[in-house]
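Sample pair:
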Amino acid sequence: MTIRRVATLAPRDPIVTIANATLCSDGIRFAMEDGVTFDIYPPGRIDWAAGPGWSGTFQPQFFGTLTALLLAWRSNVPIHGTSVEIDGKAWLICGRSGAGKSTLGAALIASGAARLIADDLSLLTGADDAMPLLRAGRPGMRLFPAVARLMEQAGAGTARSEPGNDKLMVEPPRVAPLESIPLAATILLGENEAKLPWQREKLLREHRFRPRWMDAIPGREDRDRVIRRVATVTPMLFVAAADIRDANAFAARANAVLERIRELES
């Protein structure tokens, strides 16, 4: 991957603009709110230019949204969810905003049973005839302060603040960088149970990272095949959403889900 700062961005051939991303014939132009604009040239180059008001620090979206856009162009499937590894298998946690995806992932890690694969942005990949995989993402989790302190109390990382963010960053035990882990199942928080493969596929599609962009970026058919295979060959656990802020509920949440996992694997 080559990332370079340029004085002036080259002209692009725009096709469609969705929010602050413009799909072009040769990639994507993404404009940040602080005046920085990124030109993504798949498979492996990003040019960027800063306006006069730039603070000198990249916003958190640089590490999430831009990564998702680039990897989607490579036929990977970015999912808005947290993922953890338990006994060599990956568990993908999805849910609506506020359902407790990161909190459940943190609880499982704090229990000692799991390691972090990725938080908030999880990457699915896999060929048509292969078991779907989850790839290791960034090393940290952004957590509500109360949850971050519970992680500290469990010895699962040290919380630190980030400028302009109300959440705290914790770097817990995690899988090796760039490691790919076979997907065991998807845990859906706060969703009605779906039994048929097409219903499960529809649910997974709703939890893609920036769905409108994923529909527009080339390679949609390949990404859809990955989602369809996940819905067909791997199980789903449906778990109620929860807002967990105290130590007893934190531990109980992990124990309850681990029990469900053991039942599924038995």
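Residues 247-265 form the longest helix (19 residues).
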